[in-house]
Write a structure and sequence with these properties.
This protein is of the alpha/beta class. It contains ten helices and 17 strands. It binds zinc ion.
Length: about 350
């Protein structure tokens, strides 16, 4: 098969189209013919060798994808060739304590697609059948890939962990990111007022088009002061951050008394100093949230099929142009998800 075969860690130029052996489904596994691959910021970490899990080379990366079942290994029931599916990137075991509780997103014995196994920057990928979620007919492969991870992660952070209620105010950082644009839509669907931040005034109109009621520029506005002013001095009930660093510090200043902060990423600063006096004085709950369950994947795919959630796609590239796509991702000059077509 054709695949982007990583032979060494490095810059985007390491991402070259090459031949790789076709995967063969073993017991409990299926092989998918991928139609769409999603790019994620963590892919750049894998490519540079700083993700925290070492790869052996050659390696095929890619945590996100959708396609059709092509072949089925022994013991797999419930799936047939041609079924439209996508794997959850968290390769849960299905049998540990947390999996048995329905918390497959915090499986105690999980791999990560494209990190601990070969991933989706390829024409085909092999996964265990227990991580597959069906894609409704009304949802295209591009929309499934563009929307599911960001919407599901935003749902987990805002609704499950953040306990967002109708009428509350939500602060969403980095509205231009895939996860930020998803969080705006989830918060609006849940009945919240949304204050979004971006690092560029060029993205204000796009954030408003997604449903943001107010937009702030974190490079020029004092975010805590601006949020307090917009909320009558109360602050945001839930803050949703995927940046870390100063943006997470903004959340601590901007959140209401008794408010909740959901942290789903930290590319803008992984180690920060937090004033815990502020945390307990304001009765802040700080949630870490890395990914949703498979059940929430299915829920957000249903909401996409119903037209309630619309994924934001910046651009789809041919698989061979993965390097160009990575360079664009690292420039941050995009709004929404980037995809590859294998
Ligand atoms: Zn498990």
């Amino acid at each position: 098969m054709k695949a982007i075969v990583l032979r060494a860690y490095g810059g985007p130029s390491e991402l070259r189209l090459d031949e790789a052996p076709d995967p063969v489904a073993g017991a409990g596994e299926v092989v998918l013919r991928l139609r769409t691959t999603g790019l994620n910021h963590c892919d750049t970490d894998v490519r540079r060798g700083v993700f925290g899990v070492a790869q052996s080379f050659p390696h095929v990366m890619g945590v996100d994808g959708a396609g059709v079942v092509e072949s089925i290994g022994p013991g797999v029931t419930g799936f047939s060739a041609g079924d439209r599916v996508m794997p959850h990137f968290m390769l849960s075991c299905g049998v540990c304590r947390n999996c048995q509780r329905g918390q497959d997103n915090i499986c105690l014995d999980a791999g990560v697609l494209g990190v601990t196994t070969w991933g989706t920057y390829a024409e085909r990928v092999k996964v265990r059948a227990n991580v597959l979620v069906r894609i409704p007919e009304a949802v295209s492969f591009d929309d499934a890939v563009a929307g599911t991870v960001p919407f599901a992660t935003a749902w987990e952070g805002l609704v499950v962990m953040g306990q967002l209620r109708v009428g509350e105010t939500v602060l969403v950082n980095a509205a231009g990111s895939g996860i930020g644009s998803a969080a705006i839509q989830i918060a609006k669907l849940a009945g919240a007022r949304v204050i979004a931040t971006t690092g560029s005034k060029a993205k204000f109109a796009q954030a408003r088009a997604l449903g943001a009621d107010e937009v702030l520029d974190y490079t020029t506005d004092d975010i805590p002061a601006a949020v307090m002013a917009l909320t009558g001095g109360y602050g945001a009930d839930v803050c949703f951050d995927m940046v870390g660093g100063d943006r997470l510090i903004d959340c601590i200043g901007a959140v209401a008394q008794g408010g909740r902060i959901a942290s789903v990423g930290a590319h803008g600063g992984e180690k920060i100093e937090i004033d815990f006096i502020e945390l307990f004085r304001k009765h802040i709950t700080l949630h870490g949230c890395g990914r949703s369950t498979k059940a929430i994947y299915a829920d957000v795919l249903g909401l996409m099929a119903a037209g309630k959630l619309k994924p934001v796609i910046h651009k789809a590239f041919d698989l061979k142009d993965a390097g160009e796509a990575h360079a664009l991702m690292e420039s941050r000059a995009f709004f929404g998800r980037m995809l590859l077509h294998p």
